[in-house]
Amino acid sequence: NTRAHLSLLAEAFHDVLLYRPPTVYKAGAAVPVIDHTFVTETMSQLSNSMSKFLAKAPAHCTPSETLYFETVHLLATLVPLCASASHDRSVPLPKATMLAELTGAIQASLVSQLDALPNPADSIQSLISTFSSFHRVTMLRDTAMATKVTLAWILAFNEREKERDRSGGSPLPKDVVLEMKSLQSRATEALEQGRALISSLETQIANEAELGRRLREWAFGGDQGDDELGGLVEDGTIKGVVESWGLNVRGWKQVKWEVK
Fold first, then answer.
1. If you ran DSSP here, which 8-state letter would residue 86 be given?
2. Is 171 inside a domain boundary?
3. What percentage of the chain has pLDDT greater than the value 70?
4. N or C: which end of the chain has fewer CB within 10 A?
5. For residues 140 and 190, is the Cβ–Cβ distance under 8 A?
6. List of long-range contacts for 204-211, beta carbons under 8 Å, 24+ apart
7. Does residue 245 form part of some domain?
8. Tens digit of pLDDT for each residue in 96-136?
9. How far is CA 25 from CA 20, 31, 37, in A?
């Protein structure tokens, strides 16, 4: 199953980069080197594995899922390219054009997913569409979180190598570092926009009676008596729908939008 394979590989990607050792763990001098080797080799393996399934992704995944999986693949490709060159000066730096293409594609994915989000303020149809499914919001969050955690790892590793070298120079070219930071900021903005969307829905759901009235009017075209079908739908049904939306939004308010 293409979707299942890609989901498991994406989950492994997050597990590797988000792992934190126990606070009681005492790291030796060789541990950073081992960690670097483990991360870069694992990312290479994940990148290679994902490439085998991505061609079939559009036939088995939603457009948002496809963008997410493609972005994780690009990020998994980016880590060993940057980290290997930073750690071993004998390894040639990847061409700036290649890095620009990778970061550009990642940014395009974030922009595409942001553009695909409905704006609840546009119309009642957009508001109902947003309440009905949070799938695109989920994929945007996962894409932005994956981008942030990857770039944080690359930039932190580059700083450690800079200190280890003692020359004062950055192992990665300054323009590459700036590009990474710019993309990191873009991912942060995407997360903030996603969180703002949830906050706007919380505001809409605060007045359940008004939202219920708008929902009935949209569904049945006016007052209950104006439509035979509308007369069959009890107020309790509308109230139940609105309450379920509120429960969903309250659950989303517990979702973390930051990488720590």
1. H
2. yes
3. 82
4. C
5. yes
6. 204/120, 204/127, 205/242, 205/245, 205/246, 205/249, 208/239, 208/242, 208/243, 208/246, 211/242, 211/245
7. no
8. 678 888 999 999 999 999 998 888 877 888 888 889 889 99
9. 10, 11, 19
Q: What pTM does this model have?
A: 0.86
Whether 259 and 144 have beta carbons less than 8 Å apart is answered as no
The token pair that represents 186 in the structure block: 């873009």
Q: How confident is the model at residue 89 (pLDDT cuts 50, 70, 90)?
A: low
Q: Tokens in use for 31? A: 């541990």
Report d(CA 56, CA 4) in Å as an integer.
12
- Number of domains within the chain: 1
- Averaged confidence pLDDT in the chain: 85
Domain assignment of residue 209, yes or no? no
The H-assigned helical ranges of 55-117 are 57-60, 63-87, 96-116
Q: Say if 183 falls within a structural domain.
A: yes
Structure tokens that stand for 115 in this block: 């553009």
Tally: H helices and E strands in the chain:
11, 0
Residue 220 amino acid letter: F
Helices 124-132 + 208-220 axis angle, to 10: 110
pLDDT of residue 168: 59
Residue 181's pLDDT is what? 93
Q: Quote the distance between the C-alpha of residue 52 and its chain's center.
A: 22
Check: CB of residue 120 under 8 Å from CB of residue 126.
Answer: yes
Q: How far is it, in rounded angstroms, from Cα 51 to Cα 71?
A: 11
Report the pLDDT value the prediction gives residue 35, as an integer from 0 to 100.
Answer: 78
Residue range(s) defining the domain that contains residue 177: 2-191
- How large is the greatest C-alpha to C-alpha distance in the chain, in angstroms? 80
